[in-house]
From TrEMBL:
Subunit record text: Homotetramer. Forms an RuvA(8)-RuvB(12)-Holliday junction (HJ) complex. HJ DNA is sandwiched between 2 RuvA tetramers; dsDNA enters through RuvA and exits via RuvB. An RuvB hexamer assembles on each DNA strand where it exits the tetramer. Each RuvB hexamer is contacted by two RuvA subunits (via domain III) on 2 adjacent RuvB subunits; this complex drives branch migration. In the full resolvosome a probable DNA-RuvA(4)-RuvB(12)-RuvC(2) complex forms which resolves the HJ.
Family matches, as SMART domains: HhH1
InterPro entries given in the database record: DNA_helicase_Holl-junc_RuvA_I, Hlx-hairpin-Hlx_DNA-bd_motif, NA-bd_OB-fold, RuvA, RuvA_2-like, RuvA_C, RuvA_C_sf
Protein name, UniProt field: Holliday junction branch migration complex subunit RuvA
UniProt domain Helix-hairpin-helix DNA-binding motif class: residue ranges: 71-90, 106-125
Length: 201
């Protein structure tokens, strides 16, 4: 089991990043790939390895606390890695923890694939069990036919990232229209704004 990798991030896609460690490129699934930057500098990525009958996947996190939050979400019945990543893509981790501790299932049902029953299960399983997590520290591709034809590369990548997180085409199409007048500097800003809009609809 891996704890973390230290290496150079060589590729950033809407679906994953690639980190080169000792000449080996590891494909790592992350909540928001555009938090990372492909540079020649070594970067530290915390790693969770998931082993299934026919698949071995690596999941990456910027902080130890974010990794621990992911692991706790996986402990909930009905929550798989994809759903956990979609929840973590929303950077309001303090809001997530507060929602769990205050029985706010409405906040949790805003995430893709999380219905009322699963939201209540998250609260039941995790309420009061995340005191050690500090919020401040805190797959397959699908073709999109919902991207505005005149979308910038950054907007297009952000909408592809939403698809990889499990958001519906209807939601992506709606938020894509809303973001056409958003003056984001890069894909990360577009994706952060998209998640903000989706989680406050």
């Amino acid at each position: 089991m891996y704890e973390y990798f230290i290496g150079k991030i060589t590729d950033v896609t809407p679906y994953y990043i690639v980190i080169n460690v000792g000449g080996v490129g590891y494909r790592v699934l992350v909540a928001n790939p555009f938090r990372y930057t492909a540079t020649n500098d070594d970067q530290k990525v915390y790693i969770y390895q998931a082993v299934r009958d026919n698949d071995i996947s690596l999941y990456g996190f910027q902080t130890f606390d974010e990794k621990q939050l992911f692991i706790k979400l996986l402990s909930v019945s009905g929550i798989g890695p994809k759903s956990a990543l979609a929840i973590l893509a929303n950077e309001d981790h303090s809001g997530l923890i507060n929602a769990i501790n205050t029985n706010n299932d409405k906040f949790l049902t805003k995430f893709p694939g999380i219905g009322k029953k699963t939201a209540q299960q998250i609260i039941l399983d995790l309420k009061g069990k995340m005191k050690e997590i500090t919020p401040a520290n805190l797959v397959g591709q699908q073709a999109l036919d919902v991207t505005p034809t005149d979308a910038s590369p950054a907007l297009r990548e952000s909408l592809e990232a939403l698809a990889s997180l499990g958001y519906t085409k209807t939601d992506i199409k709606k938020v894509g229209k809303q973001l056409q007048n958003f003056a984001g500097k890069d894909t990360n800003e577009y994706l952060s704004q998209a998640l903000h809009l989706l989680n406050n609809k």
